[in-house]
């Protein structure tokens, strides 16, 4: 079977985590090859995220799609199932951000927003740092209605917070069983740690339950297919 791949949102390989003087590199993921269809039509003159309102928790049940999601495990593993809060972040076409002008509008999720809660703000200022591929809109995230963006790959900008993380919004909460051959890839020991692999539902459940409060949006990625968790990945974060 030829699997389709998509990313609701995942920390892309190479994102530097700069808080507290540390750095970490998330596990790499395949590029997205399918963007879910949406009936939403953008307003003329408004720059919107490419993934605006196009993904839902139901996508995780698709048997033909492997999905990588940043998640916070909220209840450990009980009876072979884990409950997680699932998150995403806004991404924009490079050309849209490069063509953005004062007087235009841009749509984005504010910190702590749910997936269907967006703001549609007028652009009053744009500052660009070409050396580091950064764009600050309306004074950046320190200001009301401000937004910071970073070039994530050759053709996509993503939101950015103080510590270089994406600006996450919550998709919702979902309970999913662990696959029998689920794999935990844990490189959270230190910035240079090689991933330690644990295989099997019972062993992975025991590892997660041993540290119930240390599986957060910033360090945890779930790989899901057909409603089951195939992999749990945890990285080091400051």
From TrEMBL:
Domain of life where this protein originates: Bacteria
Record protein name field: Uncharacterized protein
Organism for this UniProt entry: Faecalibacterium langellae
């Amino acid at each position: 079977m030829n699997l389709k791949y998509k990313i609701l949102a995942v920390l892309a390989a190479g994102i530097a985590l700069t808080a507290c003087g540390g750095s970490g590199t998330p596990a790499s993921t395949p590029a997205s090859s399918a963007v879910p269809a949406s009936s939403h039509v953008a307003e003329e003159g408004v720059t919107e995220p490419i993934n605006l309102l196009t993904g839902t928790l139901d996508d995780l049940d698709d048997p033909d799609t492997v999905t990588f999601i940043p998640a916070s495990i909220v209840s450990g593993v009980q009876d072979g199932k884990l409950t997680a809060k699932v998150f995403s972040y806004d991404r924009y076409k490079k050309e849209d951000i490069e063509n953005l002008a004062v007087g235009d509008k841009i749509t984005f999720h504010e910190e702590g927003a749910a997936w269907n809660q967006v703001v549609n703000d007028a652009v009053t200022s744009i500052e660009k740092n070409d050396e580091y591929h950064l764009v600050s809109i309306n004074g950046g995230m320190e200001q009301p209605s401000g937004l910071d963006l970073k070039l994530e790959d050759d053709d996509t900008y993503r939101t950015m917070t103080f510590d270089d993380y994406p600006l996450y919004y919550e998709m919702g909460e979902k309970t999913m069983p662990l696959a029998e051959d689920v794999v935990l890839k844990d490189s959270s020991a230190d910035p240079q740690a090689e991933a330690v692999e644990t295989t099997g539902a019972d062993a992975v459940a025991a590892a997660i339950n041993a540290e119930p409060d240390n599986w957060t949006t910033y360090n945890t990625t779930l790989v899901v297919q057909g409603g089951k968790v195939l992999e749990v990945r945890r990285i080091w974060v400051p």
